[in-house]
């Protein structure tokens, strides 16, 4: 556990934080500190934004949580901001009830897991109130991915042939996709299974989102792709897959978003490919099991490229 004393003493001397007790420090990064605290006799969470854009990120996170709270329904929730301290870029928020979706999925049986995944798809669909078609700047993402991959060039544990082949396929998809119109919406921005909490209320599953900053429209498929790749990390490897992701997971998350247009399907494939490689390289460097799982998913992703490209030909 991170030493709670690492939270800045100056922050805790803030007049609005008198009496706050830090129970545990969950993140102690260069961009943010996150702590579970005791506030007004209740458990709450403190997030202190750090670094160059701390002020803007704090403001964006507070605004986004307030905005999302107005949109969400009974079963689809976001945490409530309790205190917004602009002068120290700190947000105190209510605790999300239940368990992180990742933990809830790991302990659930298959049927229950798919029900949770489907609810996560519904949660996202509920959050995105306005959708619009915007051009997808595939080369921009592609360039970033190539630069990212080049940082691992001297890592001998990386299968350079696999990465090289994957980037060739990514380039083919990029050529076909660039500036095609795809569905954009103000989404979560970091939609993954540790940023959504699941609580049971009788037969109902209440989902609560945390960790939101994005207020700009992004491709909706980017958030879907991120969640799918996170879910794939914990999934049993199977052969029935879609874009490298186990088909039941893929279908359960995407179903609440209705029929997917051809360009969106290709953009979803693109972002899944991007995130599979990111996970293979970065997280896989720390956890060999992730590398193994991601390389199987990448192999499948590559083998499904031709069919997806064919389906998208000339269709908008
Ligand atoms: N309001 C909350 N209720 C319950 N748990 C919370 C809350 N806020 C934060 N946490 C816990 O703290 C963890 C880190 O918080 P948060 O996701 O905001 O930080 P982060 O550094 O942006 O995380 P990451 O980059 O890993 O997504 C969460 O994964 C969650 O376990
Ligand atoms: Mg998070």
TrEMBL record:
This is Aminoglycoside phosphotransferase domain-containing protein. Residues 26-233 form the Aminoglycoside phosphotransferase domain. InterPro entries: Aminoglycoside_PTrfase, Kinase-like_dom_sf. SUPFAM superfamilies: Protein kinase-like (PK-like). Signal peptide: none annotated. It comes from Paracoccus liaowanqingii. Transmembrane segments: none annotated. The lineage of its organism: Bacteria, Pseudomonadati, Pseudomonadota, Alphaproteobacteria, Rhodobacterales.
